[in-house]
Amino acid sequence: MMKAKNILSKLLILFTGLTFCLCMVGCSKPKADLLLFHGIVYTVDQQFSVKEAIAIKDGRILETGTSAELMDKYDYDKRIDLNGKPVYPGFIDAHCHFYGYATDLLKCDLTGTTSFKDIIEKVVVFEKTNDFSWVLGRGWDQNDWSEKVFPDKKALDSLFPNKPVFLQRVDGHAALCNTAALKIAGITVATKISGGEIICANNEPTGLLIDNAVSLVEQHIPTYTSELITSALMKGEANCFRCGITTVDDAGLGKDTIEFIQQLQKAEKLNMRVYAMLSNSPSTLQYYFKSGPIIDDQLTVRAVKIYADGALGSRGACLLTDYQDRPGHFGFLLSNIDTMKNLANRALQSRFQVCTHAIGDSASRVILNMYGSLLKGKNDLRWRIEHCQVTDKNDFNYYADYSIIPSVQPTHATSDMYWAEERLGPDRVKNAYAYNRLKQAAGTIALGTDFPVEKIDPLLTFYAAVSRKDLKGFPEGGFQKSDALDRTSTLRGMTIEAAFANFEEKKKGSIEAGKLADLVVLDNDIMLVEESIIPNTKVLKTYLGGRCVFEVK
């Protein structure tokens, strides 16, 4: 009897222990790596809901909600009090030149120069510490000078009679070279070029090259070492994270560059998420059209970049009627229409998106018509027009009819507004930089900076889009303010709609469960503050996959 009681007692103890363990298992909270709480979280979901807290695990968002809800629901390794600061999805720059920006950090910075004399002074100082075989620079804009005329090579020839010099305009669609560089490229007054210009005077080249003529010299420039490029890319990435950018759409990369970036990503030397558009080079296109797209969280290769025309600032943009400030000149297409259509059709057959640079109203019409002939109605192929700076009033309907996405850079409007009417005339300029009408026509719009053509900061994109003013607050009422975007549309264009333009809306672009935890924390709420405060807003933290990659110390 005593023995039976002992056995019963032991079984009771065992049952109690098991019950306790099961209760502990059943009652344990799910685990999160990180909890951000007491914030103003703009989820940019379909309802544009605003939450307080975010739970993150394994680089992805577990849940959003109130601080109390998530603190009670999850166990977490780390928690951070946001102290009421606003949080947004990581900014996606829908059109930039990340690789070019990085390598430009190795060149003489000519942005903000106010005269050709200013350029010469900067180049002379730069050359003293430059060990490279060429003198390279980028960033000048004659429209910012008191004398708004293109420079020539005379001063460069005097200072650098033997060392080649190549100085790109800010938009990359024009360059000034000295005689040494022209000789290496074999350029003379007799040289012919299609889709560009070799500017000549007194029966010799002035050194100024426009659009396709630029590549005649550029192809002869030696490449930097892989060590220098790696260092430059890492600096470029750090600058992006400092601005809250977590994905860059790099508008035109060759196979070798894409593979180099991929190697750095795999070696964890580069963390930036890159959406790469293929450059129009035969070897690059042949390789990827055969091998197919690359789609992962760090690198996506599924788009082709086509250049239809040049830039408005260098009068290479292709217009329906001639330039007001250069009668008889219409700009030019950089390739013939059949060539561009054949490339677009190859991309279509190979399951690649098409993204076409088109700035002038003639170039836009050509591309819109070309897209329409291939797409044949509404679709989900998400072909894009990059820039679409001047659109004829009769052509906006194409965006809706063929599901075309406008990809624009709002700071172009506030940079160009000082001289755009001189180029276009008072009537045609009214249909330039028409972002609101493009948004209404297409139902979506992707926003970028086009850095290094413009400044890298996406908060300047936000400011230019909503205010249509420059950093001086000019003009008082905003430039063609009826085409400003509201703040919700602007934030969506920098996040979820930019992700949509990349076929990536299911994994980024909003703060929702299951998506990558790419986030940016600001010191001001750009959805509510006065417009004038937006450009001075600072990024406090940037998260990439739940990991803090930038923090104000």
- By CATH reckoning, the class of the largest domain would read Alpha Beta
How is the main sheet built?
9 strands, mixed
Silhouette: globular
Briefly note the structural class of the backbone.
alpha/beta
User: How many individual helices?
Assistant: 19
Low-confidence stretches: 1-5, 11-26
| CATH domain topology of the largest domain | TIM Barrel
Portion of residues in beta strands equals 15-25%
Helix content: 25-40%
**For the residues shown, what is the average pLDDT?**
94
Kindly report how far apart the N and C termini lie: 74 Å
Number of strands: 25
What's the quaternary structure here?
single chain
CATH superfamily of the largest domain: Metal-dependent hydrolases
User: What's the gyration radius in Å?
Assistant: 27 Å
At CATH's second level, what is the architecture of the largest domain? Answer: Alpha-Beta Barrel
Domain unit count:
2
